[in-house]
Design a protein that fits this description.
The chain has 91 residues and is mostly helical. The chain is rod-shaped and about 65 Å long. Helix content is 80%, strand content 0%. The chain starts with a helix and ends with a helix.
């Protein structure tokens, strides 16, 4: 599944950005639920925890995609397309 996402153009930076955005969304959903839901703190906490579970998933996906990106750079370098050494060291 990760390979398919990589082949379709999804990159690790996209997943990391989604992880950061989900952390922000956790705070917003918790505060919004606390303020506008009549159920109070318990419901707000559940919304925050539910959305908060997304961040580790996105970060894990980013790590998996980074492996494919690193492998692509190594393959290009080995095939003589001369990827810059700095590109290889950042992975």
């Amino acid at each position: 599944m990760i390979k398919m996402l990589h082949d379709k153009g999804l990159r690790s930076e996209h997943a990391y950005t989604a992880g950061i955005a989900s952390i922000a969304l956790t705070v917003v959903s918790w505060a919004g639920s606390l303020k506008y839901e009549p159920a109070g703190m318990a419901r707000a906490d559940r919304w925050g925890i539910f959305v908060g579970e997304w961040a580790p998933t996105f970060f894990g996906l980013g790590l998996a995609l980074a492996q494919y990106e690193r492998d692509d750079l190594l393959r290009e370098f080995q095939e003589g397309e001369h990827a810059a050494p700095s590109d290889l060291s950042r992975m």
